[in-house]
């Protein structure tokens, strides 16, 4: 019988280093073609859609995540992991954690590849689940000295900072002004639900690495378009998915698309990443398909012997 | 946390009457538009595809079944049931039982609607999982006096007959000749994996009802095309799905499509079913999408209080 993971079980069993290592492997596999990730498949229902994002790693596993667009605040997803040799289901995860942990861990892999080796300060805009997993994963790849966080409500940013101190053991402070929260930070995480810019190029110090997790499309973006012009290095976890957004992704517009790098290629050493301490590097997170299944595979292997 | 059902748990918890009642409701809901069942969504992987068949019942539930086309003999599926009010996942089934029980129960609903009221003998071609659930569901809608079964191997048909006697308490006999197995039977179930005819119109007595579960397409069909010409009543659980097959379904060819009735319409009294004891009635089973979720909903409600 397949093992089933709840959100609490995922959160308890998964550490940042393991998750980032799994995502690094998945990015390399996507770059060299072993990880197959087709476009999402959609089934229209009444007032919403069910969506399947699938993936297969060579002869190891295949599976999918399903989610829907009904917009229920407590809606749940599933991730299903099949053994590619037998078709049997090895594991199922019910909830949200696998999805947000893998997005966080992709961000951690980006920080590790693109931020300065000595990066130690982190500024965060946003205090939700996505912001949290970005910090969780960043703490696994850089020894953080300080986290500053801004979100719209004082209670939200205070709780977030307290959680960083408690769970990650890193000094953390809520900041009322978004610009102050990211000023002179080595790493910046943008993980808001804003459709209008909360940050622009002028807010970033030379040498900063930024993970852009929220909206980043033409007409709805949490950062100003000048941010991409400012970036010396622009990378994504899936150029194919970045090119398929509607409305188009800012980083996929003609003047950027040619320089948008595959993070897997950077990890493989096939494309350069940061080449100097003053460069600004930006990671446009799109959520490489198949990586939820890759993370569930890692979790299942850590939790029980392979069938 | 969602409740998770294994195949053994589904088999133990689900009786034929309950399953047929659930499918009857689903057929009526599909006919009156409350059950939404969009075309299947497909994600291509290496050497196979993942497929999602989804459904939504008004404001009650939505969900899907996933399966793949890799052809693993022991491959497993999932069925996922969401509460339509909250988006939360109420139940997940892992394995094959929900899928084959719902196909059986759709067949049981067809037998109940179309076979003679006094039908008591059943002939079966095929001895696999699909043949079994057809007999299981038919026994829930007609008091069976005798089951005769033919399949390619003596061991297979003997084991099947023994299971009918043991689990359903109905006299049952293996028969070496397929024609003899269906001769003068009130109900016939065709549930083989054959791509060439194993039965033709001449093999059926007047008054027979037949459930066609296996291949029924142009160029690959377990029955001869004259069978449909012989049918006085031709019905299916989803005319829309019947029309979407590739290669085309025999019952969807121009000379039949106009008289292919929606089983839900028959159940609703909007279209006549059998109108005389000598008529031959044929049910072309296509597996109405969303019905796996409907059956899981019924199972979950029977097993635990609604969230």
UniProtKB/TrEMBL annotation, chains A, B:
Coiled coil: none annotated. This is Ornithine cyclodeaminase family protein. InterPro entries: NAD(P)-bd_dom_sf (IPR036291), ODC_Mu_crystall (IPR003462), ODC_N (IPR023401). It comes from the Bacteria. It comes from Micromonospora zhanjiangensis. Gene3D superfamilies: NAD(P)-binding Rossmann-like Domain (3.40.50.720), ornithine cyclodeaminase, domain 1 (3.30.1780.10). Pfam families: OCD_Mu_crystall.
